[in-house]
Design goal:
Elements lengths: L6 E6 L8 E5 L5 E4 L25 E3 L5 H4 L2 H6 L5 E5 H15 L6 H14 E4 L4 E3 L5 E6 L7 E7 L7 E5 L22 E5 L10 H17 L3 E5 L5 H15 L8 E3 L2 H12 L6 H8 L10 E3 L3 H9 L4 E5 L8 H9 L6 E4 L8 H8 L6 E4 L2 E4 L3 E4 L9 H9 L7 E5 L3 H13 L4 E2 L5
Parallel strand pairs: 3-4, 4-5, 5-6, 10-11, 11-20, 12-15, 12-16, 13-14, 13-15, 16-19, 20-21
Antiparallel strand pairs: 1-2, 2-3, 7-8, 8-9, 9-10, 17-18
Helix pairs in contact: 3-4, 3-7, 9-10
Bound molecules: zinc ion.
Length: 450
């Protein structure tokens, strides 16, 4: 096996799906970090103080996309002395500020410190084009490819000069999207590489296809709204809300959902992100651009309402149905959706529709597991609330490539990657994908020793 001309350290997101943070250190003292994400409570990640180099010695921080599990620890890195360049796509650069501002609102730093960190990130961050080659120090080059996961998401290809063995190339997949995702173009085809560091979130399963999913959503909304109830959809602010708006716009245009039904986006962050999605049409796929050209804005339709301030949110909680309310957080661990459900979950005319993964220990998971049981209830804001609303769960609304998508991405690497290292997946997902890849003749690394 060809030796790697650098050391690779996984500081988070190696064997779990959150807290992504990888560090490459080269003998000539260049250090490159890829993502600096926040782990969820139950996931492990090394403290930044345990890094093999000081934060001040890291030359570049590459960001694959603006989800908090890939960027959430940037403030800590800045405070630890990081002073290098932050490199990402133009869209990710736009999304960094609102996402980090929201993340920082949960920290106990002073307002002055928060402002200082945000200003510093703004100074250090640079947006780059997809599919162009750029130079770093010491002859290292990089290129960003569209990962099709959320707006601005990329995979990164580095090429490191090596006098003895010739250049060595590495691709970090970041989070890869599905083909045929609303709004976004399909992931780009990668170039050849000696090492592929591949996410494996859904390494052991496949999603329902998009047309079936849209039909399912239409069916649920139609029946739900026929009894004048309220339909609650907890959703992540970045990616999921925009996908939902797009699908509801389609359903309303096709007449599957009555255009008269009001839809409320009760999420200031979700609204801010949607405005960025709306503005950056150069990142949309052809279908979305065609709709816009025909005069149908894919994130806007009749009876769509933005709920910005808290007073309006309070009014909406008591407002009678029928309506659709989309708010965070996706797993009901906080956010405005919790207040809605505290008041409305015990009404059998209402519907609660999960469109994302519900992790163990979250109120979302408790509701899913207890729905339909006698005297089922869930604790929200410290109160026990009976679960009387109808509960639905739609799998397939995932911004992550499924098993088939991951295999397709690997197969599209010209001439096979020299080695593949699987990261960002639970054990079962990684093992299933490893077996399939090895069966088709790929070399998959178990552990990585420099
Ligand atoms: Zn992501």
């Amino acid at each position: 096996m060809m030796p790697f001309p650098f050391d690779l350290h996984h500081l988070g997101g190696e064997t779990t799906v959150t807290g992504s943070c990888h560090l490459i250190t080269l003998p000539n003292k260049i250090s490159i970090m890829v993502d600096c994400g926040l782990p969820a409570n139950h996931d492990k990640a090394s403290a930044l103080s345990e890094m093999p180099v000081k934060a001040s010695e890291i030359d570049y921080l590459f960001i694959t996309h603006a989800h908090i599990d890939h960027i959430g620890r940037i403030p800590d890195l800045i405070e630890a002395g990081f002073d290098g360049e932050i490199i990402c796509t133009f869209a990710t650069r736009e999304l960094l500020q609102p996402m980090l501002e929201d993340g920082l609102s949960f920290s106990d730093r002073s307002e002055k410190d928060k402002k200082r960190i945000q200003d510093r990130i703004d100074e250090l961050a640079w947006g780059f084009e997809y599919n162009e080659t750029f130079d770093l120090k010491h002859g290292v080059i990089f290129k960003l490819g569209n990962a099709g996961h959320i707006l601005g998401s990329c995979f990164i290809r580095f090429e490191f000069p090596d006098k003895t063995n010739g250049p060595f190339s590495v691709i970090f997949s970041g989070d890869l999207g599905n083909v045929d995702t609303p709004i976004l173009p399909d992931p780009d085809m990668p170039d050849a590489c000696d090492l592929l560091i591949l996410e494996s979130t859904y390494g052991d399963r496949n999603h329902r296809d998009r047309s079936r999913r849209t039909q399912d959503l239409g069916g649920i909304l139609e029946t739900a709204l026929s009894d004048q109830g309220k339909v609650f959809i907890p959703a992540f602010a970045l990616g999921r809300i925009q996908e939902l708006l797009y699908e509801i716009d389609r359903l309303k245009s096709m007449g599957t959902v009555d255009p008269a039904f009001p839809v409320f986006i009760d999420s200031p962050l979700g609204l801010e992100i949607t405005a960025i999605y709306s503005k950056m049409t150069e990142f949309w796929d052809q279908e979305a651009r065609d709709l816009l050209r025909k005069g149908d804005h894919p994130f806007d339709f009749r009876n769509l309402y933005a709920v910005e301030n808290h007073q309006h949110h309070q009014k909406l909680i008591d407002m009678p149905g029928p309506c659709i309310i989309i708010a965070g957080s996706g797993m009901l661990t906080g956010g405005r959706m919790v207040a809605h459900l505290e008041k409305n979950l015990d009404d059998s005319r209402n519907d609660l529709l999960f469109v994302g993964y519900q992790a163990q220990g979250t109120p979302g998971r408790t509701i899913l597991e207890n729905a339909g049981k006698k005297n089922a209830h869930v604790s929200l804001n410290g109160r026990e609330i009976p679960i009387k609303a109808r509960i639905h769960s739609m799998t397939g609304y995932s911004a992550h490539a499924d098993q088939a998508g991951l295999l397709r991405f690997v197969a599209s690497v010209p001439g096979k990657p020299g080695n593949i290292k699987l990261v960002h997946g639970e054990r079962n997902a990684r093992m299933a994908l490893k077996c399939l890849l090895e069966d088709t003749g790929y070399s998959v690394l178990n552990t990585f020793h420099g």
